[in-house]
User: Fold this.
Amino acid sequence: MSKRAGILGFPLRHTISPIFQQAAFDHLGLDVRYLVWETPPAKLAARVRELAAPDVVGFNVTVPHKEAICPLLDGLADEAMRVGAVNTVVHREGHLIGDNTDTYGFLQALVQHGLNLRSKQVLLLGAGGAARAVLAVLAREGVASVVIANRTLARARELAEGLKGRLTNVLTCPLEGEALALHASRADLIVNCTSMGMRHGSAESETPLAAEMIPSSALVYDLVYNPPETPLLRAAMRAGASTLGGLPMLVYQGARSFELWTGQKAPVEVMFRAAQRALTTGS
Ligand code: NAP
Assistant:
């Protein structure tokens, strides 16, 4: 019997996960269709019940359901509990178990880039779901300090509060002004977890930091993957800094999800090629 996997979120018009996940299933000759399950918040609980069907191997979860889905599942893996959010659900013996592979994707992309997080000073822009996953990684990789800068300062403070006991040296600041400029000037690594610069988003042409605020010695890592060259990454290049876009993280988190669903090694190169093709053809 043909099986199903998919992605659950709202809206989902611009997701490229179906393209690179289907490429992986097809490459390994697995009879699985990866579908798009666009689901508004009011229908989330009903959809999750439907997806407990025996032919569903599992699914990805994206904005805005990553936190809201937690109490609707049969259980959470340790990583999902640590992060407080689910981006992957695995259907195992009749149970839907929530996991988080964003953390793996974030770190794997950095490792491939050649950056070791130990003792680094990190400026994290944003305080939503992605920032939560990134902070879980920073907390266990031994960074020296983290500054969380967010448009809504209260959300940054809430995240910092939740890190007590796991990470010392956490500060917060607004996403503008002198404090931001000071923290940017001291950062070894700047990670953008806001949706500024995202294609089709409301701040598509904006960058959270201007080139003058970025030290040339920093690595600027933008989680936004579409477009591949965001306004922030362009500013970083002008400043002479190193850059890393969000596509490797997206592919690595998806590869880990694929492995959880199938128990097989993900064809990462095939997934990369499919994802890159999808972006260049304007998906
Ligand atoms: P989210 O939970 O909705 O959080 C959005 C964040 O962006 C919040 O900090 C929000 O600030 C900030 N923001 C939104 N619009 C802004 C604006 N106009 N000016 C300043 N700040 C703004 O979203 P998320 O899940 O964390 O995702 C954030 C981004 O990361 C998205 O672009 C997503 O595509 C990307 N992402 C990439 C990967 C990957 O694999 N590469 C994985 C996950 C996420 P407020 O708190 O003030 O609203």
Q: What stands out?
A: Residues 63, 102, 105, 126-131, 150-152, 155, 175, 193-196, 198, 202-203, 223-225, 246, 249-250, 253 surround NAP (CB under 6 Å). The longest helix spans residues 247-262.
